[in-house]
Amino acid sequence: MRILLFLLTNLAVMAVLLFTTKVLGLDAAMGGNYGSLLLFALVFGMGGSFISLLLSKWMAKKSMGVHIIDPQNFNNSDERWLYARVEAISQNAGIQTPEVGMYEGAPNAFATGWNKNDALVAVSWGLLQVMSQDEIEGVLAHEIGHVANGDMVTLSLIQGVVNTLVIFLARVVGGIIDKAVFKNREGNGIAYYATVFIAEMVLGILASIIVMWFSRFREYRADEASAQLVGTNKMVAALKKLQNLKENPALPKEMAAFGISGNSFLSLLSSHPPLQSRIDNLLKY
Fold it and tell me: How crowded is residue 268: how many other Cβ atoms within 10 Å of its Cβ?
């Protein structure tokens, strides 16, 4: 269903943009090439996002050095307990048990995967060392909430749409500036490429604000899913523990939006809401 939404959303975007350019006469002014430009934007904007989604588990394992727990051959009691809790919470959430892994790092956890029944949930050794079992359950339920809600797919859909818009609109603006302002009538001049570069940077920042707004919104939803699955107190306790840690949990850029915690120097570009805001939301939930 989400893949169908993925395709329909982009067809709708293409149709609206094509209609707008025809109504405004921009396609004629640009030599009627906007259809090809939209296809170009779609391939690179949506294609990159879709490929990243399909490769997300593989990239996460490689970039984070995740050790996958083998349910047929547990190495220790920690692995046995962790897998058992993920399995039980997943059954409660109505999804297949994700792959379960552990990695070296500061206290954090993440979930990823292109399909809610083919996902990965991983926690750091740092998190296992500083949190109680109840707190870890809250974190696991939060990550499983992301999986059950289909957040990875939805975020990729949104990222792909805004990528398509950025690529398309930057080149439209570049063409208008090149021909209307600099009166270039022979192909694309230097003004076109300079304008496209600047427009992509500006539009890219605006696009990131949209994507990060959704990322913060889904953190609240995953917190609420955790409260439903294992109880509000466990998730609140986990967030308070993160709040009290001196070391700020960190993940690579590619995985930051999928972690239990994150930060940014600008709130509009942060993938996660403030921890206190999430705690307050849960206490009202």
Answer: 13
